[in-house]
Structure formats: C-alpha cells, structure tokens
Give the backbone structure.
Amino acid sequence: MAGARVQPLGSDDPERLGQYQLLGRLGSGGMGRVYLGRTGGGRLVAVKTLLAEGVVSDTDRRRFAREVALAQRVNSTYTARVLDADAAAERPWMAIEYIAAPSLAELVRTEGVLPASAVRWVAAGTAEALVTLHRQGIVHRDVKPQNILLPLAGPRLIDFGISHASDITRTQLTLGTIAFTSPEQARGEESTAASDVYSLGATLFHLAVGRPPYPEDGDTLRLLSRVQRGELDLTGLPKELTPLIRPCLAARPEGRPSPGDVLDQFTASLSGLPRSPGGGRWLPPRWTDLIGAYETQGRHFQSAPGTGGPDALTVDQRTGAVPPPGPTRMYTQDRARADRERRERELRAERERAAALLADRARQAREEAERARARAGSSPGQGAPPRTPGPVPRPTPAPPPTPPSPKSGVTGGTVLAVLVGIAVILYLLNNGSDSDGTKSSGSSGSSGYTSSSGYTTSTGGSSSSGSSSGGSSSGGYRYTPPPSPTPNSVDLAYRNVDTGDCLNTYDNGYGRWSSTTPQVVSCGSPNAYLRVTRASQGINFGSCPTGTGRHYLYHSGSRYNFATSLCVERQFHKGQCFIAKRNGTTVTDSRLMGVWSCNATKVPSGYNTILQITGYYKAQKSYPNGFCSRSRDDRNYYWWYEVDGGRNVLCTTTV
C-alpha cells in the first residue's frame, strides 16, 4: 500500500504527551512532528507538536492556543476535530481524531481518476465541511487533495486553522501547494472564503482529470506566475462537470459560487433518486479496495498497536475519527440495495411492457367489436365502415344496441370479458407483490434503507384511472375523464408529520424500517424511537444532518408534488438494546437506529451480539478509563458512541 511508514520513536521523541502514549512517528511538517497516539481506553489519535525542537516563543504559544481554540469550535461530520491540547506544555501539542483513510492525492496517484458522479459526491462532502468552517469564521487557506481524506463514510477535510492559519507566506512553496492556491493567495493578498472555493475547484478538477488545472512543466516559479494570472488549462474536463467546476475557478473572487451553492447543486442533481451518503454507491471498486485496506490497517493499530519497524503498516500522515474500541459505523447493505433496485427496475419495465401489450389488445378488441357491430347493423355487401370510438360529453340516452349476429364471430359478452380480463390484469400488475415477495399497498412502492451509506425509506408509485365505455344505438362511447390526483393515505400520513414530532419507527435489523407509514406518538412515550428534526415537502433529504444516530426518511409520493422528506434523530434511552457484530473486544458493525429485544436469543445473519444502553451522558473532550463502569468493581467490557452530533455519548455493554 502506498503511503509513509510509521517510524519508531527516536531518541529525541517523547514517549507520552498528556494522556496519550505515543506509538510511533507519522511524519514531520512545517509546524513540527506528528505522532500516532493512543489513550488508555484504546482510542487512536494523531498528536501534533508545535515544534519538534528548539525554544517555543511566547508569540508562537499565543498563536497556537488561539488557533486550537478556534478549531475546537468546529463540529462537522466532514472535518477532523481537535480533541485535546496543551499550549502551555514545554512542547505544545494537540490531539486530533484519527482516520485510517488515504488522501485524495494518493487515491488519484495510485488508482486513477473518478467518474463525474463520484466527483460530485466528493464535492458535496468537502463543500459541507467548508460551509461549517466559514460559518465559524475560519478560512482553511490550504484546500488540496493532500488535505482531504476519504473513508467510505465521506470526505474529511483536515489541517484547517492550525498548520496553515496564515497565508501562503507561512506555507512551503511546492508544486503540490501552489497548484491548488487561488490567484489572490498567490499574489500575497488576503485569503477569504472565496479562496477556499477556488482551491476546491482545482481539487475537483484534479479528481476528474488527474492533474491540476494548469500547464505542467515542473517549474515552480513559472507555475506561481500562471496561478497569479489565473492562466488555466482545462483540457480534459468532462462536459458534465463543467457547470460545477468552472465557476469555482473564476479569476475574481466575487465571480465564484459559495460552498453552499456547490452543495445545493449536488443535492438538486439527486432530486427524486435514492441517495446513499456512503462511498460504496459512488466510488469505483479500485478506490474502495484501497480505502478498505486502510480501514483494516486502522483496526490493526487499534487492536495491536506497535512501534513501527518492519511490520508497521503504512498510513497517510492524516487524522480523523475512529470511535473506540473499533469503528462503530452503521452496517451497510449496498449490494443488497443494488440488487433490490435492479429488481425494481426490471419489474417496472415488465409492467410497462405488459401494460403496452394489454393496451394494444384492448384496442384490437374495440376495433373488432366495431366491425362486428357494423356487420350486425348492415345487410351483406353493404360494407359499412366501423365508427371511430370517441368521447361523447353528454350522450343522449338511447335504447340498447341491436345484438350482433352470431355469424359475426364476436359477441358483446366476448368484448366485455376481454375488457374485464384486462382490468383484472392491470390491477394485479399495479397492486400485486414486488419481486422480493413483499406486498405493496395502494400506491406504495418498496421501502428500505442503507445505513453508513444512509438510511433511505421510500414509498411511492403511480395510480392509473381507466375509462368505461358503453355502446349506444348511434355507435358512440361514454368517456369518463380521470379524477384530479389526490393524496393517498401514505401521502397524507407523511404530510401530517411536523418538525419536532416523534415516531415509533425503528430499524428492524433486516434492512427495512419497522413501518412504511410513519405514526406520530408522544415524545415521552417508551416507543418514541425517532424525533423529526425537519419535515419538508419534496425530495430534499440530502441536506439532512448526518452522523451516528441521525438519518432521514423520504416518501416519493403517489404524485411528484406529494413527496415528503423527514430528517430524523434517534431517541436513546437507558435499557434499550440494539444488535451489533463483535470480534473479540472490537465492535465492527452496529445498528444504533434499531431496537432489538434485550431477551432475544437470535439476531439477524451477520450479527452476533446484542448491546444494551447502560448510560446516556453529555459528551466530553476525553474519556478516562472506566468512564462507563458502574462501580469500582465492575468488570464488564463497555463500548461508547458519540451521538446527537457529538453532543452526547452512549455507554453500552453486552446483554
């Protein structure tokens, strides 16, 4: 695997910084050295020092403390958070969440470029990180592929407001930095949020084409001059990505979109489509294979940390979140979801073909009936042409038509039987069982979800209304226009849910929500498992907050204008249980959105553990050994999860 090795600690390296035992050296940078550290509870962190050697001035300490305090205000799924720091220590340091994931730079270098859809997905996650930073008044100033990690859960922006808290004058003049710098930064002018947007555009271009958006000749000073002038070379940029990337690379800052605009563009492109936030849906296999290898490496460090040497695994000198004692990400069912979507597409195509065939047979039956009626009403040899059926808005009552002659070969009973048969078949096609054997109700379609990639609950379909026609002595047909579309019961159930309501819906452990129709319950009741943080019309769940214990439900509607999206947050209570997969002391998969009987003797395939919530507390900056223990003599093993956007923490143990 490509990447820098974890080097053994040298004679001038400390063995501990604060509460963190240092396992090895990840690398060195402009601000000092970066170490791989571990807490007493087993959590991995990246510990950065202000300077590796020499005397730290009071000015540097104050700047360091100010930058750490600023970074600690940021709490986003798409950034790496500062967990702890000590600016007053002899060697000032900060501990940052650790993510075992490759950078975009390594992925492009070793595995090639991304398709347009995956570039948009990376753009959305990075833009969301910038939205969070800019809201806190932080300008990153060094957005580039090396500073964006990519676990399957989504991109993570690192090194904001710390090692590059000043302009380019404090960064190294390298091709890797200059090529993603905005023109105003290259000219030594003040950096703004628009500067980060320019760097984002250059990074996305690199993902799609494999190089920065400038001519390549290896000359650093010439490249700097080109960046200052905004002299771009966009050869090779896919046309479908031009509307996303080209505006970000505008020479003047006021001509660039905001990160929120980039995020909205991605969300709009997903309107009406199932969305999975996880990379398994968007990234090519060669990328996910490398990302998976890094995750395996992280688990190795977690369970059996070493100090480098010949057996040390490679990392990418980057930081991010790995919840102790192992990754506690939601269980994903990308393959099952893909198979289900394929079956649904095939079923829809089959229904459309059947409907077209039945419509053609119905037309033939009507024409044959007309010919039979014409023969019955005329003497041999007259050859009266059949009437073309058409709507008669207000037909005058007339006596029943003369029955056709038996010699015609088609009777009124035959025609009626054909039409009734067509109606029955159409009803079965539109109201029968789905391909997986689950019976649909009314206009509801399939319902299901994916988890680390994102829960998705959809119910939808279409209604059709037929027309009844009857004959008259004049040969006309009665036409009944279809009624105006009205919401069905599922549409109304979703429309009746408001922000702040609580629902009794939960993950049933088998890839589905417990109910396809939301039922509002009192938020104080024991079965209030979800709280709605935002209810809105339309398919716009892409902007719902994400993270452990947060997701969304959406209903595509029996008609497009009946669609509804619900952002939801899990309501945790002490004593509740959920299923997980455990390997020794490491939990590898957890379904925190689920509810499972604490007394159950069986769990779904792929899981082997039932975890029970023993405590629900306010989150802390760090968690000491025994944080979840209920007494000094408690020998149970506990796993904890930060939830509610990092505001609270769950303590759990096996039943």
About this structure: The chain has 13 helices and 20 strands.
